[in-house]
Design a protein that fits this description.
It contains five helices and 13 strands. The protein has 245 residues and is an alpha+beta fold.
Amino acid sequence: MSPTRRALLRSASLGALALGGCLGAETSDDGDPSRSAESRSGSDGDPTVLKARNPGGEAVVVDLAVEGDDAEDDAGTEGGDDDVDPVPLSRELVTSDERAAELTVAAGVADEGRARVRSFLDDTDYETETVFVAPASIESCYRYRIRSVSWRPGHVEYEYCRELRPPDAACEADTRDAVGLLFRLPAALRSPLSGSGSSGRSPCRAVGTEYDRIDANATVPGSDTALGDTGTSGPSADETGGDGS
Protein backbone atom coordinates (compact mmCIF):
# COMPACT_ATOMS: atom_id res chain seq x y z
CA MET A 1 0.00 0.00 0.00
CA SER A 2 1.32 3.43 -0.89
CA PRO A 3 1.80 5.79 2.04
CA THR A 4 -0.82 8.47 2.42
CA ARG A 5 0.00 12.16 1.97
CA ARG A 6 -0.56 12.72 5.70
CA ALA A 7 1.96 9.99 6.59
CA LEU A 8 4.55 11.51 4.26
CA LEU A 9 4.08 14.96 5.82
CA ARG A 10 4.36 13.54 9.32
CA SER A 11 7.58 11.72 8.42
CA ALA A 12 9.06 14.90 6.96
CA SER A 13 8.13 16.87 10.09
CA LEU A 14 9.79 14.35 12.41
CA GLY A 15 12.94 14.42 10.28
CA ALA A 16 13.07 18.21 10.47
CA LEU A 17 12.68 18.15 14.25
CA ALA A 18 15.49 15.62 14.62
CA LEU A 19 17.78 17.69 12.40
CA GLY A 20 16.86 20.85 14.29
CA GLY A 21 17.74 19.16 17.60
CA CYS A 22 21.19 18.22 16.31
CA LEU A 23 21.79 21.71 15.00
CA GLY A 24 20.61 23.19 18.30
CA ALA A 25 23.05 21.08 20.30
CA GLU A 26 25.95 22.18 18.08
CA THR A 27 24.99 25.84 18.45
CA SER A 28 24.82 25.44 22.23
CA ASP A 29 28.37 24.07 22.35
CA ASP A 30 29.70 26.92 20.25
CA GLY A 31 27.79 29.37 22.39
CA ASP A 32 29.73 28.52 25.54
CA PRO A 33 30.73 31.97 26.97
CA SER A 34 34.30 31.01 27.81
CA ARG A 35 34.95 29.49 24.36
CA SER A 36 33.38 32.50 22.64
CA ALA A 37 35.37 35.00 24.72
CA GLU A 38 38.59 33.03 24.20
CA SER A 39 38.29 33.27 20.43
CA ARG A 40 37.79 37.03 20.39
CA SER A 41 40.34 39.77 19.97
CA GLY A 42 39.55 43.28 21.09
CA SER A 43 40.70 46.71 22.13
CA ASP A 44 39.60 49.39 24.57
CA GLY A 45 40.36 53.08 24.31
CA ASP A 46 39.14 53.70 27.85
CA PRO A 47 40.37 50.62 29.73
CA THR A 48 39.67 49.61 33.31
CA VAL A 49 43.13 49.76 34.85
CA LEU A 50 44.48 50.09 38.36
CA LYS A 51 47.83 51.78 38.96
CA ALA A 52 49.58 51.17 42.27
CA ARG A 53 52.96 52.61 43.29
CA ASN A 54 55.77 51.33 45.52
CA PRO A 55 58.01 54.34 46.30
CA GLY A 56 61.64 53.38 45.79
CA GLY A 57 60.68 49.71 45.56
CA GLU A 58 61.32 46.95 43.04
CA ALA A 59 57.80 45.60 42.58
CA VAL A 60 54.14 46.10 43.47
CA VAL A 61 52.59 42.67 42.87
CA VAL A 62 54.48 39.60 44.10
CA ASP A 63 53.92 35.86 43.75
CA LEU A 64 53.32 33.88 46.93
CA ALA A 65 53.32 30.59 45.04
CA VAL A 66 56.98 31.02 44.13
CA GLU A 67 57.81 32.02 47.71
CA GLY A 68 56.26 28.76 48.97
CA ASP A 69 58.46 26.68 46.68
CA ASP A 70 61.60 28.49 47.81
CA ALA A 71 60.62 28.20 51.46
CA GLU A 72 60.26 24.41 51.15
CA ASP A 73 63.71 24.17 49.57
CA ASP A 74 65.25 26.27 52.30
CA ALA A 75 63.52 24.25 55.02
CA GLY A 76 65.55 21.19 54.00
CA THR A 77 68.83 23.10 54.06
CA GLU A 78 70.72 23.71 57.28
CA GLY A 79 70.77 27.40 58.05
CA GLY A 80 68.08 28.14 55.48
CA ASP A 81 66.47 31.60 55.55
CA ASP A 82 62.98 31.50 57.06
CA ASP A 83 62.20 35.01 55.79
CA VAL A 84 62.15 34.32 52.05
CA ASP A 85 61.01 37.35 50.06
CA PRO A 86 58.16 36.81 47.59
CA VAL A 87 59.22 36.91 43.96
CA PRO A 88 58.12 39.95 41.90
CA LEU A 89 55.43 39.02 39.40
CA SER A 90 56.39 39.45 35.76
CA ARG A 91 53.81 40.17 33.07
CA GLU A 92 51.01 37.65 33.41
CA LEU A 93 47.39 36.92 32.54
CA VAL A 94 45.49 36.11 35.73
CA THR A 95 42.64 33.82 34.70
CA SER A 96 41.19 32.36 37.90
CA ASP A 97 40.30 33.14 41.51
CA GLU A 98 42.80 30.50 42.60
CA ARG A 99 45.67 32.23 40.81
CA ALA A 100 44.57 35.64 42.09
CA ALA A 101 44.71 34.30 45.66
CA GLU A 102 48.39 33.42 45.14
CA LEU A 103 49.26 37.06 44.44
CA THR A 104 49.85 39.72 47.05
CA VAL A 105 51.26 43.23 47.34
CA ALA A 106 54.82 44.18 48.22
CA ALA A 107 55.47 45.53 51.70
CA GLY A 108 56.42 49.04 50.53
CA VAL A 109 53.01 49.78 48.99
CA ALA A 110 50.78 52.05 51.09
CA ASP A 111 47.82 50.42 52.86
CA GLU A 112 45.34 52.12 50.55
CA GLY A 113 47.15 50.80 47.50
CA ARG A 114 47.32 47.31 48.98
CA ALA A 115 43.58 47.28 49.59
CA ARG A 116 42.83 48.52 46.08
CA VAL A 117 44.98 45.85 44.43
CA ARG A 118 43.39 43.09 46.53
CA SER A 119 39.88 44.31 45.76
CA PHE A 120 40.66 44.64 42.07
CA LEU A 121 41.82 41.04 41.86
CA ASP A 122 39.02 39.65 44.02
CA ASP A 123 36.22 41.58 42.30
CA THR A 124 37.11 40.32 38.80
CA ASP A 125 34.71 37.79 37.26
CA TYR A 126 37.19 35.32 35.79
CA GLU A 127 34.43 33.49 33.92
CA THR A 128 34.19 36.42 31.54
CA GLU A 129 37.18 38.66 32.40
CA THR A 130 40.97 38.47 32.66
CA VAL A 131 43.45 40.58 34.63
CA PHE A 132 46.65 41.50 32.81
CA VAL A 133 49.43 42.44 35.27
CA ALA A 134 52.27 44.55 33.87
CA PRO A 135 55.08 45.71 36.18
CA ALA A 136 56.79 48.99 35.32
CA SER A 137 58.98 51.67 36.87
CA ILE A 138 58.97 55.44 36.57
CA GLU A 139 60.66 58.52 37.99
CA SER A 140 59.16 59.41 41.35
CA CYS A 141 57.71 62.74 40.20
CA TYR A 142 56.01 61.32 37.10
CA ARG A 143 53.05 59.08 36.43
CA TYR A 144 51.62 57.03 33.57
CA ARG A 145 48.36 57.61 31.78
CA ILE A 146 47.04 54.57 29.95
CA ARG A 147 45.64 55.48 26.56
CA SER A 148 44.44 52.09 25.27
CA VAL A 149 44.84 48.34 25.52
CA SER A 150 44.36 45.59 22.94
CA TRP A 151 44.36 41.84 23.29
CA ARG A 152 44.06 38.50 21.59
CA PRO A 153 44.51 35.01 23.05
CA GLY A 154 47.96 34.89 24.65
CA HIS A 155 48.95 38.46 23.76
CA VAL A 156 48.30 41.95 25.21
CA GLU A 157 49.58 45.39 24.21
CA TYR A 158 48.92 48.80 25.71
CA GLU A 159 49.70 52.42 24.92
CA TYR A 160 50.57 55.05 27.49
CA CYS A 161 51.97 58.51 27.98
CA ARG A 162 53.96 60.03 30.84
CA GLU A 163 53.34 63.28 32.71
CA LEU A 164 54.18 65.04 35.96
CA ARG A 165 52.22 64.00 39.02
CA PRO A 166 49.89 66.54 40.67
CA PRO A 167 51.64 69.23 42.73
CA ASP A 168 50.24 67.84 45.98
CA ALA A 169 51.77 64.39 45.41
CA ALA A 170 54.94 63.79 47.44
CA CYS A 171 57.87 62.65 45.32
CA GLU A 172 61.65 62.69 45.27
CA ALA A 173 63.85 63.75 42.39
CA ASP A 174 66.36 61.25 40.98
CA THR A 175 64.40 58.33 42.46
CA ARG A 176 62.46 55.64 40.63
CA ASP A 177 59.30 53.98 41.90
CA ALA A 178 57.86 50.60 41.00
CA VAL A 179 54.42 50.76 39.40
CA GLY A 180 51.97 47.91 39.08
CA LEU A 181 49.53 48.17 36.17
CA LEU A 182 46.51 45.88 36.43
CA PHE A 183 44.18 45.84 33.43
CA ARG A 184 40.74 44.21 33.61
CA LEU A 185 40.07 42.85 30.13
CA PRO A 186 36.45 42.02 29.16
CA ALA A 187 37.40 38.60 27.76
CA ALA A 188 38.28 35.23 29.27
CA LEU A 189 41.74 34.65 27.81
CA ARG A 190 42.57 31.09 28.83
CA SER A 191 45.81 30.82 26.88
CA PRO A 192 49.03 31.57 28.83
CA LEU A 193 50.69 34.87 28.02
CA SER A 194 53.01 34.24 25.09
CA GLY A 195 53.79 37.85 24.24
CA SER A 196 53.08 41.43 25.30
CA GLY A 197 54.17 44.92 24.42
CA SER A 198 53.79 48.58 25.24
CA SER A 199 54.45 51.87 23.51
CA GLY A 200 54.20 55.44 24.68
CA ARG A 201 55.26 59.04 24.55
CA SER A 202 56.43 61.72 26.96
CA PRO A 203 54.97 64.11 27.76
CA CYS A 204 51.26 63.39 27.40
CA ARG A 205 49.44 65.52 24.86
CA ALA A 206 45.99 67.09 25.11
CA VAL A 207 45.23 65.88 28.64
CA GLY A 208 44.50 69.27 30.21
CA THR A 209 47.41 69.19 32.66
CA GLU A 210 48.70 72.74 33.01
CA TYR A 211 51.64 72.41 35.43
CA ASP A 212 54.81 71.67 33.48
CA ARG A 213 57.91 71.92 35.66
CA ILE A 214 59.21 70.67 39.02
CA ASP A 215 62.28 71.78 40.93
CA ALA A 216 64.67 68.92 40.13
CA ASN A 217 66.84 69.55 43.19
CA ALA A 218 64.25 69.03 45.91
CA THR A 219 62.08 66.41 47.49
CA VAL A 220 58.57 67.44 46.55
CA PRO A 221 56.23 67.53 49.57
CA GLY A 222 53.49 69.46 47.81
CA SER A 223 52.63 72.25 45.46
CA ASP A 224 55.34 74.64 46.74
CA THR A 225 57.89 73.05 44.44
CA ALA A 226 55.70 73.04 41.34
CA LEU A 227 56.70 76.14 39.43
CA GLY A 228 54.41 78.20 37.26
CA ASP A 229 50.67 77.60 37.05
CA THR A 230 49.67 74.86 39.51
CA GLY A 231 46.19 74.22 38.19
CA THR A 232 45.44 70.55 37.63
CA SER A 233 42.77 68.51 35.98
CA GLY A 234 40.96 65.68 37.74
CA PRO A 235 41.88 62.03 37.33
CA SER A 236 41.17 60.64 33.90
CA ALA A 237 38.83 57.73 33.28
CA ASP A 238 41.74 55.35 33.01
CA GLU A 239 42.73 55.89 36.65
CA THR A 240 41.01 53.65 39.17
CA GLY A 241 40.97 55.25 42.61
CA GLY A 242 42.61 58.52 41.57
CA ASP A 243 45.58 58.51 43.93
CA GLY A 244 47.76 60.76 41.78
CA SER A 245 50.04 57.90 40.87
